[in-house]
Amino acid sequence: MPIVEVKELTKIFGPEPVKALNLLAEGISKKTIFETTKHTVGVNRVSFTIEEGEIFVIMGLSGSGKSTLVRMLNRLIEPTGGKVLIGGKDIVSMNAQQLREVRRERMAMVFQKFALFPHRTIIENVEYGLRIKGVDPHARRDKALQSLELVGLKGLESRYPDQLSGGMQQRVGLARALANAPDILLMDEAFSALDPLIRKDMQDELLDLQQTMKKTIVFITHDLDEALRIGDRVALMRDGAIVQIGTPEEIMINPANKFVQRFVEDVDLSKVLTASHVMRRPETISPDRGPRVALQLMHDSGVSNLYLVDRSRKLLGAISAEDASDAIKRGRSLMDIAIRDVPVFRPEQHLNELFEVVSSTRIPAAVVGENGKLQGIILRGAVLAALSGGNEHNESGGEGK
Amino acid sequence: MPIVEVKELTKIFGPEPVKALNLLAEGISKKTIFETTKHTVGVNRVSFTIEEGEIFVIMGLSGSGKSTLVRMLNRLIEPTGGKVLIGGKDIVSMNAQQLREVRRERMAMVFQKFALFPHRTIIENVEYGLRIKGVDPHARRDKALQSLELVGLKGLESRYPDQLSGGMQQRVGLARALANAPDILLMDEAFSALDPLIRKDMQDELLDLQQTMKKTIVFITHDLDEALRIGDRVALMRDGAIVQIGTPEEIMINPANKFVQRFVEDVDLSKVLTASHVMRRPETISPDRGPRVALQLMHDSGVSNLYLVDRSRKLLGAISAEDASDAIKRGRSLMDIAIRDVPVFRPEQHLNELFEVVSSTRIPAAVVGENGKLQGIILRGAVLAALSGGNEHNESGGEGK
Amino acid sequence: MTKLPLDRWVERGVDWLSVHLRLLFDLLASIISGVVNAISSLLHLLPEWLIIVLLIALAYRLGRWKLALFTAIGLVLIWDLGYWDPTMDTSALVLTSSLISVVLGLPLGIACAGNRVVQNAITPLLDFMQTMPAFVYLIPAVTFFGLGVVPGVIASVIFSISPTIRLTNLGIRQVPDDLIEASEAFGSTPGQKLFQVQLPLALPNIMAGINQTIMLSLSMVVIASMIGAQGVGAEVYRSVTQLNTGKGFEAGLAVVILAILLDRLSQRLVGSDRRKRKGGLRQAAWIGGAVIVAIAAAGVYHNVREGAAGNEAGSIGETVGNRIIGIDPGAGLMKASAKALQDYELRNWSLLEGSGTAMTAALDKAYKAQQPIIVTGWTPHWMFVKYDLKYLDDPKGSFGASEEIHTIARLKLDKDQPSAYRFLDRFHWTPSDMEKVMIGISEGKNPDDAAAGWVKDNAATVDEWVKGIPPASGQKLKLALVAWDSEIASTHVVKNVLESRLGFKVDLLQVEIGPMWAGIAGGDADAMVAAWLPTTSIDFYNKYKGSFEDLGSNLEGTRLGFVVPSYMDVNSIEDLR
Amino acid sequence: MTKLPLDRWVERGVDWLSVHLRLLFDLLASIISGVVNAISSLLHLLPEWLIIVLLIALAYRLGRWKLALFTAIGLVLIWDLGYWDPTMDTSALVLTSSLISVVLGLPLGIACAGNRVVQNAITPLLDFMQTMPAFVYLIPAVTFFGLGVVPGVIASVIFSISPTIRLTNLGIRQVPDDLIEASEAFGSTPGQKLFQVQLPLALPNIMAGINQTIMLSLSMVVIASMIGAQGVGAEVYRSVTQLNTGKGFEAGLAVVILAILLDRLSQRLVGSDRRKRKGGLRQAAWIGGAVIVAIAAAGVYHNVREGAAGNEAGSIGETVGNRIIGIDPGAGLMKASAKALQDYELRNWSLLEGSGTAMTAALDKAYKAQQPIIVTGWTPHWMFVKYDLKYLDDPKGSFGASEEIHTIARLKLDKDQPSAYRFLDRFHWTPSDMEKVMIGISEGKNPDDAAAGWVKDNAATVDEWVKGIPPASGQKLKLALVAWDSEIASTHVVKNVLESRLGFKVDLLQVEIGPMWAGIAGGDADAMVAAWLPTTSIDFYNKYKGSFEDLGSNLEGTRLGFVVPSYMDVNSIEDLR
Ligand SMILES: Nc1ncnc2c1ncn2[C@@H]1O[C@H](COP(=O)(O)OP(=O)(O)OP(=O)(O)O)[C@@H](O)[C@H]1O
Ligand SMILES: Nc1ncnc2c1ncn2[C@@H]1O[C@H](COP(=O)(O)OP(=O)(O)OP(=O)(O)O)[C@@H](O)[C@H]1O
Ligand SMILES: [Mg+2]
Ligand SMILES: [Mg+2]
């Protein structure tokens, strides 16, 4: 069962939302609705599900309804229509007591504008959620300290929010949410004020949380790299509606429309694309053949290396043309001349991890799956072609040197 | 004359800053000072200059003093020590009237936390600076509308800030500063809440302003790509001090220390590095030699192509080994067999513009300067090696295939 | 447009309250006086120097040396000027009323902030309480609570509670939305939200409200002194009435010093500096709570001790709360009743002053519920027709013999209006006649109609009265009456006859008994038919003797006495002992 | 430790001021009275219905129909109840004082917010102004500004300016720092910052302050009436001193309605809704400015016209402004005075209601300046000792014969405290005895000391009083008194004798005349020696008749009448015509 399920969720700002809701149902656009009725469509009939342990990233234009959507997940904003099921229970129809229970035990939120309590010290801010739950003072101080340490603000416990820099304040907000150890973390541009180093630490922290604690995280960001790095799935919003949902790669590689394409075009593809995206079919040979056959094969397919695999396609090594002709002269077997130190990658490794090796290796690196089977090889041209954003990368084909 | 000149600028937060200032002069660290005296060193003896028309980017860890530094430029924060010369006049020693004059006419600021006036509509917020200056109502309404349109918020004039999304609010803050048309724009994480598309628009807007109006811009950002894209120079701060100042490339390529290196390591190098960074020395031959010489040359230096240049090293074409041996057989001159459509780049082109061509060309692309002279060639391996962040790229050397 | 009889309503309402809510008022009064007495005796118990030292120490702990210095100088000055004791009295009063104001005001302010309907309901009420002049409700307050410190406290609370409520409300409403959201996002209960976020952030406003409450309750001390609350206020009032500005200033200065001290100490107790405020609010709530409990306990103790002296066993006295419901304090009946209480030595009985209306209202209420009640009564009265009642025997004759009702005219009426004079002189009827009219009125008939009805039904009698009297031609005539049911009946009958049979234009002047006599004596009214004699009106009769003409009785066989419903098992006043 | 002669200093200070700053005070007084008169004559000029319609229209424009409805009902009610004219007078007073408070208070609040030193200096001053009882400075105010509306306005401003200042300060201080920074970053001048950012954001707080200022200045109208400011306040005071709760309530209601109207209209004028506030502040400033200028102009005009019309021929009426300075409206002396005005057909003379204190203050002022003045006076009074005064002849006998002062005891005092009862019954002395005590007190002696001195000097008389009365052993006794000089003297003497000779412990309950009688009648006080009869206290005497015991007179040969300084060239009331 998905942990969060959103069905036809809609929010309209204004005094008479139902009127605007009807217009919306008739398919009138957000802009027209605003111009005719002065009502703003915040979120427009959005549906999706989030599985437990998933990091669900929401991106989209400024004003497209991301914050509104996330705030409706814990009903800080009352939806105009639709349902939000948290663990199967509809949060919209809960009474105050139940809602409180959910907010206390299951969700915590990091706010876009921090929303720290100015009258409380940092540590008291971080303790807030625990205090609300009634955790006893010692335990909650400990947890809060841990949480503060996690975000790198140890030692500033007794300062007040207005004595901190913007990024520090944001981290306090983060620590406050983390201290609560909720099942679901709602993070509204939670890293926007952080520098790259701390941001990366925080991202790692999130990934850690997800893996070790199976936390579910809903994450709003404007940073594509960030979305790619931590997102299991990404939803792209525009004018209150979701334009596309999918894994980062799906969205990068198969943008649903021009808008999505424009949106993602600036991304650093080397962090998205993996070895499996750029690998080509290798020419292989089994060790029971002789060097002559190998040379012939190279010549036929116009390559200068062959990969030696056993019957289950396990990689044994590589054969270069020079070595093969040498072997013919000296009468040695393929096993004897096989180059054993072929660089090897796993198919899910990102391109940026490949650069160094691929740039310097003499023999194209091999891509080998979990089971040790050879799946493909990495040619420099293919890497560069993939980075250029051209779509030809997935076709396998020989290097035409 | 530089438009902004900062000399030994220092800010210490706390009730007795002078005491802490002395400690600082003794070389005690920020951390120790905080632990012993509870004073926070915001900015630590920073000096730099900014030329007119420059976009000066400040980056650094969260809490490193960026906001404090920028706020001292217009004396929103009173410096503890040091000088800030704006157009040659020390702002620290100005009286209230002069200071007001400078703030009205020469500088405008975009705030990290927006600081919009909640009791004013959007358009009134944008008009604020003009109103303060005493611009007459019609003119100021026009300017404000232009400015709002620039940031893409036309049509929302009469809303109030709390009815806008975070990014929209940030853009209102931007519009407010722009409407004032100041010489110097101080922008404190002014794009942090913007999505990539709008952010790019805004960056272009800034670049435009800089070029057409010769505005000077001081820009704080956490986004390395942004810094690279718009920054003429980048200053990197840590613990209140500036660690390194330089052009984006200088910093990427020659980080002053480990910290800077870590800071920039995640950057998409293909947007920083240029063809000139990765080009290798080409083996050339002049058209008055014969194919035999060419073949010999290729053999000696272990390459399979030569570049044909005239006496002033103007690129004429390329010679492949195959063609050369063919020419020997057929008795043709080098000019006859020269391949004329060698892909050509200019040295300042970024790597990401090279990918497509480099990945598919049979002959390594050439790098040709303004004057048409051949400066180098682009080898796939070198491109990949550069992207891997290894520092070996600037050494020229043959490709060892 | 006829004037709205608002004044009448109010007076009736007050009368009604004073009869029906007496228990509540007594309870309130004993609690408040208990608290004030507890504080005051505490303050008087400790020697001056000890209090001064304690307060200086507190001030030093809470504030800085500046506050301690002010405390020292201020208190020593009060001591030196000789206002120590009254200042302590005033402190007790002001502490009590500020405490009540804050304890009631904070929750009300919070309720206003939470709910627009509550706010809309309370705001005009606050305006009312703050601007209705204290003088207006001081008199009823005396009726309800007696003289002394209690009505003073109540008046102070009414006047000074407003700022606390208003500013608490305003402060809470000004807390930024995003912080409320943050608090809610963590699942705060409304209480948690209130105590952890709203109140701390509203604190500057709340403290401004409390400051104003303290100031205003101190500004009431002089007015409180006018109804007998002792203290510096009384000193001020006394000095000032002697045109002794200097002394008044001195006493006023004591008030000012007290105000500043109370204000600064309370502000510091909560902590106005956000940086130190942290536990402040909770701490203040605790301290406040403890103080309230302690004082309430002291008050209850004080009360119980006083009360224990009172009641014994299940006598009749107990069943009716040892009270006899009386009528207007000026009436002779009341005098006679007081005399009866004295004659029969009914020491712990009290005679409740009120009005005829209030008395019958109380009787009606008790009768319907078949509860015991003792009232002062007189015949003729419609109540004897309507209810089954009996007079208590009066073996000692305290109420005297039966009374007659006389007709009294101003001097020279016989000259000026001979027709009227002749009719009035002849006017004479019986108790049963009168009761017929009375019962009609008591059942809701307009007095004029009831009188007209009687005149129609008894044409023969009336013909007798007017036989041979030449009718007038629209001359004016003023009849005075006092608003007892019997007098309303008789006067309206007289009026009817004068108008319908004799062509006069009659104005009725309903007044109090004193002014009625004074009016006749002064010639402002022409006549009245309401002179109960020889008991009820005897004082006035004697006082104005010579300034009026007594036309003799118009009705005999009246009676005064204590009256009970016949279902009560008591027969003589002696049984009340 | 000797007592600090603070009282002496203050009196000297006041004297000095009244001599040296007279010009300033006169200027102030003429400005203020000009404004009040201008507003008041405007309000009286327009017909009732027009004002009502105009205000309803304004209310409808500013608020919604609810406010308009309230305006309609409230104003029609005032009209119907017959308080229109006094309400307009009060409006003029309250408008003036609120206006002054806001016009002075806003800048002061802003100054406090801008500068901690100013704040630290002003805060205790505000505390002082708000808690120093108005009664204390009313007397000097009369000395400086004369009787009437001017000292009323000044007292109102002193009392009510504080909330505006405090809350403006607080509101501005609460404006978020980042918005201040934003404003400064654009080079705002302090003025721009103030008007564009600080004031609009502080507006809810400022309006709460103004609300309180309006409420407080309305709460002063009754006190202002004690020094002769006419209006509903005087109606309230009059009703209340006549124990007429209902009427008092009606008049009080007029005050409340006025308060709510003023408050709501002013709040709406500025606009409490942020969304519509925009131009509101500036608009309000403009309107306010215009109103001030208009009123100031009207005031100056009024003043000039009066000055021109004024001093023609030298009739006595003109020299004293056709006013006779009276005392508390409830007193019998006032009734007698009114009767005198009627008897002598002094049609265009007015009798100023106020208090005994105010009367003596006015007399003192006039006497020192050797100016003509006519007051209502009675003997014994220390003023006859202190100043050279004479009664005006009363050929028509309007003031009646001389009065006696009676001793009144509660019922059953003879049983409960026979010793005290017997002494009180015997207590009897002469006007000259009394004046001896009075002059001592008026010269600054503590009343207890003055009484003790007299008792010592007249041991023989006192011995007579207590001969054969068995002393008590510390029983408590409560004497009520009203703060007239004569009663303070007599009551303290009685107290002294009871304590020093008879071993009682006497508490003095100083109250207003009404509560004094109510207290005796209710048994809250044991006795009093202050019943002036048959004129002054007659109404109370009659009202409570039967609930107290009259122990007969303790002093005879008092006198009532109009009193003038002997330097005045007038001898009979008839000369006033
Ligand atoms: N008002 C203040 N009082 C005390 N310390 C302060 C104050 N303002 C800032 N600081 C401290 O000064 C240092 C620099 O803060 P600053 O806001 O300049 O950082 P920043 O570089 O802008 O960080 P960020 O990227 O997170 O916005 C921080 O350590 C912060 O805690
Ligand atoms: N309280 C409000 N009243 C009226 N309109 C609102 C309100 N809050 C949000 N909106 C509107 O709803 C839309 C969605 O806002 P939302 O804050 O969800 O955007 P967002 O996607 O979070 O944008 P950003 O990335 O800029 O934070 C916007 O058009 C905004 O103007
Ligand atoms: Mg958002
Ligand atoms: Mg910053």
Walk me through what this model shows.
The complex is a heterotetramer, with two copies of chain A (401 residues) and two copies of chain C (577 residues). Chain A is of the alpha/beta class. Chain A has two domains: 52-82 and 93-267, Rossmann fold (3-Layer(aba) Sandwich), CATH 3.40.50.300; 276-387, CBS-domain (Roll). Chain A contains 17 helices and 16 strands. Chain A has helices at 17-25, 30-37, 66-73, 96-105, 122-133, 137-150, 166-179, 196-213, 224-230, 248-253, 258-264, 275-278, 291-301, 321-330, 334-337, 351-360, 380-387; strands spanning 4-13, 40-50, 55-60, 81-86, 89-90, 107-110, 184-188, 216-220, 233-238, 241-246, 284-285, 305-309, 315-320, 344-345, 365-368, 374-378. Chain A has a six-stranded mixed β-sheet, with helices on both faces. Chain A has a four-stranded antiparallel β-sheet with strand order 2-1-4-5, with helices on both faces. The two termini of chain A are 52 Å apart. Chain C has 577 residues and is of the alpha/beta class. Chain C has three domains: 18-272 and 289-300, MetI-like (MetI-like fold); 316-400 and 565-576, Glycine betaine-binding periplasmic protein, domain 2 (D-Maltodextrin-Binding Protein, domain 2); 403-557, Dipeptide-binding Protein, domain 3. In chain C, the strands form three sheets. In chain C, strands 3, 4, 5, 8 and 9 form a five-stranded antiparallel β-sheet that branches. The longest helix of chain C has 31 residues, at 84-114. Chain C is elongated. The two termini of chain C are 54 Å apart. The interface between C and D is large, with 101 and 109 residues. Bound molecules: adenosine-5'-triphosphate (ATP) (2 copies) and magnesium ion (2 copies).
Distance between the termini of chain C: 54 Å
Please report the number of helical segments of chain A: 17
Q: What Rg of chain C, in angstroms, do the CA atoms define?
A: 31 Å
CATH fold description of the largest domain in chain A: Rossmann fold
Q: Looking at CATH, which topology of the largest domain in chain C would you report? A: MetI-like fold
**Residue fraction in strands of chain A:** 15-25%
